[in-house]
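Students often ask why we bother encoding 3D structure as a string. The short answer is that it lets us treat folding as translation between two languages. Here is a chain of 203 residues written in the first language.
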Amino acid sequence: MEIYPAILTDKKEKFVEMARIAENFCKTIHLDIMDGEFVPTKTISFDSLIETSLLIEVHLMVVDPINYIEGFSKNGVFRIIFHLESENNPNEVIEKIRKFHLSPGIAINPETEASAVESYIDSIDMVLVMSVNPGFYGSKFIPEVLNKVKLLKKKNILLGMDGGIKHSNIHLVKESGVDIADVGSEIFLSPDPRASFKRLSML
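And here it is in the second language, the structure alphabet:
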């Protein structure tokens, strides 16, 4: 299982600081983008991206995600994930992500059934299972979502999990069959982010 350090901030200078820290110990980060409408929190947007050696997986927690795709098609972004709950026409969003030669993914909130994403499996590259209600750093992990992973693993698709993942529960995430764990506060709020990342990677 891979660990992607997750960045959530509303300040460009903080994003730059966190990205520079991450460059020292990983190749890929997960960047949370929020509009203050789909979720209560608002973060930086595409105009805050910088030149970096990192690959960036963008997680759109926004209304009308289709309007964000072109802006994020630069500066190391390789995948854009949007929420099934935020879009009435997911196929249109998937098509536009592909148009910019990016990898499309769909995220589902804790209350959304795994079956809701099944009709899009053949059109996307990954499913991101939210293990918290989205919108905040440091939220509490919801273990019941692990059951979704078991169902989705049968679909032979890349699976990510995002939210509340810590040293104390990452073994549950790994054992469930998740391919990528997005970890934010446990890394960046640690006194030694590099050491925290390495420890998580070994568990």
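Translate back mentally: Helices lie at 12-23, 90-99, 146-152, 170-176, 185-188, 193-202. Keep this in mind for the problem set.
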